[in-house]
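Researcher: Going back to the complex we discussed earlier. I've cleaned up the inputs and rechecked each line, so this should be the final set. Can you rerun the prediction on the complete assembly and write out the structure?
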Amino acid sequence: MEFIKTYIEQNKERFLDELFALLRIPSISSLAEHKPDMQRAAEYWKQSLLDAGADKAEIYQTPGNPVVFGQKIVNQAWPTVLVYAHMDVMPVDPVNLWNSPPFEPEIRDGKIWGRGADDDKGQGFMHAKAFEMLVRTGKLPCNVKFMIEGEEEIGSPNMGAWCEAHKEMLEADVILVSDTSMIAPDIPSITQGLRGLAYLEVEVTGPNRDLHSGIFGGAVANPANILAKMIASLHDEKNRVTIPGFYDDVMEVSHTERQAMAQAPFNLEQYKKALDLKEVWGEEGFTTTERTGIRPTLDVCGIWSGYTGEGAKTVLPSKAFAKVSMRLVPNQDYKKISRQFIEHFEKMAPPFVKVKVTDLHGGQGYVAPLEMPAWRAADKAYLDTFGKKPIPTRSGGSIPIISTFEQVLGIKSLLMGFGLESDAIHSPNENYPLHNFYKGIETIAAFYIHFAEEMKK
Amino acid sequence: MEFIKTYIEQNKERFLDELFALLRIPSISSLAEHKPDMQRAAEYWKQSLLDAGADKAEIYQTPGNPVVFGQKIVNQAWPTVLVYAHMDVMPVDPVNLWNSPPFEPEIRDGKIWGRGADDDKGQGFMHAKAFEMLVRTGKLPCNVKFMIEGEEEIGSPNMGAWCEAHKEMLEADVILVSDTSMIAPDIPSITQGLRGLAYLEVEVTGPNRDLHSGIFGGAVANPANILAKMIASLHDEKNRVTIPGFYDDVMEVSHTERQAMAQAPFNLEQYKKALDLKEVWGEEGFTTTERTGIRPTLDVCGIWSGYTGEGAKTVLPSKAFAKVSMRLVPNQDYKKISRQFIEHFEKMAPPFVKVKVTDLHGGQGYVAPLEMPAWRAADKAYLDTFGKKPIPTRSGGSIPIISTFEQVLGIKSLLMGFGLESDAIHSPNENYPLHNFYKGIETIAAFYIHFAEEMKK
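Model: Rerun complete. Updated structure for the full complex:
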């Protein structure tokens, strides 16, 4: 694969110049005044794909921001890779904390500094350049499609419908995404799993108005006390969630996979120190990494009732509220879990109170099978470029669009992220090491070669 | 006691005119701009006592509002009654809800309308007039002292120290107070017990900052969940408070007294309907009236943690807070209970969290013994004037100054209240029925006669 290194070496300055032009466009999707910048970013991406060697590239309008689609079909019989990236970025406030202007990218200390340097212009653009290299050197071993969206930072509200409307056009064997991070500069990893989410709000009503806690206290159920009791009962003494059926669909992770996950460097003492914790907490029988990676959980994200100001006010509140999020693992259906929660919460309400549960939000989990050809190809590509296989990691978080791709298009994604924790995405002074940028291009190109081979087996 | 009725009949218009002059003074203690009105109210009270027949009457300045003290010593060997009342009133907002201006008292539908009509100018002034009657008719059978304070509605911050400084001057056999209500116009009652109060705030800290509930949820203790669990554990399955030692000093009420209390009319169905409750709640083995009257309780007055705005935010909060009030019964020491709570709460905190407990406020409970001469005298006085004995009631609320009197002066109080629930004290359209005003004067005068006799026994 020497040609890859050579090509990068010969074009590294131009790659950066081209990325910098993209970084200079302030394509902030959450701010209406940047609507024209979204269009500019789309046009820049369209032209970049054409310049790189795409047969065609188009801008698709949606009810929100545009999506750029481009492709190169080398041979209908060959496998197809669909690349997903996003061209929108987060706002830059507080702008005074930036050491250099967010939309005037520059190189310092071996890093690219600017909004979007990592998330996801820097990481996304690696794919354009890996594609270009394979086209120009005549080594592209598969068909390639690109879909670059403009609303990832606001929750991809139109992407599901857009995919639904263009199913045939988007047909592919795998979706390739670089929008996550790796464990450390020399420890490559691939996010294998994402958790799903069910998020509900509960309201417990006691008396029909706030009461004097002296006159009525002890004789009327206090909804704050009752809510506390109900929430407390949602975990048993092993810190397992007690909602009937909650674990029914949990995909048990094999001993082998748990062993592979355990390879990821993790220092419990450092973890506790960073959070100032004497002890960690969680479901009995699982490690900290497993608790967030492969196990579903239930957390109160907010709770409120009664008087919350300064000093003492003696009130027996009429109502108490809580927001509850449940992180789900692959195969758990968030709609089913939400229904189970509602049923359980309503059923366990004592006759002293009324309860109301509102389903606020949800999304499915995701997991990539380690046996899929794309994973094997990735293993080989990282071995080529990093000298070691990527560690499969499970993120406790959720990227709902990834599960949407699976549901709508029926295609698995491979989350080859090259970012680092220190890249400060979403924060002031976002950056992306040059090393990771070039290493990413190299690894992606190697992936294509191995992927085509794996698909032939 | 025919002379009492006759005297009232002959002077009823003048009594009202004099009360109205007091009601016209806007002596709102919580508003600084009414400071001069507090002085005017004090002067009016001083003059009223002198006019009624006091040997002397003085205005005592305090760091806050003045206290009026007056007395008539008929015979050093005779028993002494110390009357307590307050001349300050609550604010009048929202003033547009008043049907007549709050400080322009008027009679409509057989009631006096205006701020302070009941609380406590109307009820307090009955004592001035009962005293006047006994002096002018030459029937005063005991010594009488008056202390009229100006800060009751703001928690009597200076009254304890003032009593401490004038212990000797305040020596008496009983303190007589009309600042509470009776069950119904034809069902006289005396508040026999008041609950004490211990009020604390708890803070539970998990991780040192708010965390992403996906990345960390399930692996780090959530302080909101832990706080819920801790609060839930404060009651057992019989709804008894689980703090060790909590019930140690509770004065068990005798079967006889519980039977007397049960005489008070109480309709559970109406109570539930008024509060829109399917079921009441409380400590096993006690009635609703007993639960607030003779049993200590624990209530969450406020709880808050994490995200409490609209919609879904996935946060694992760093901190969770609650305000907890415990209503205590006579003989329970609020300082001891506060200490027990702090100790218990700190002790039960699991190693995943840190807890901090702050003692915000407290006050002792109070109970008047049914065997004291003043109670026997009251029984006879109400028999004379209402044709029935007053029902002893226990209020779930607290009037801290009453327990302060007992602690500082060593004197029991008799809470002969003539107000009604419908008097709308603290609210717009405060009122006081003329019937209650005159019946109060009559009963107080009768009380003096019987009290002197009882003290001779």
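Model: Worth noting: The mean pLDDT of chain B is 95.
Researcher: Good, that matches what I expected from the previous run.
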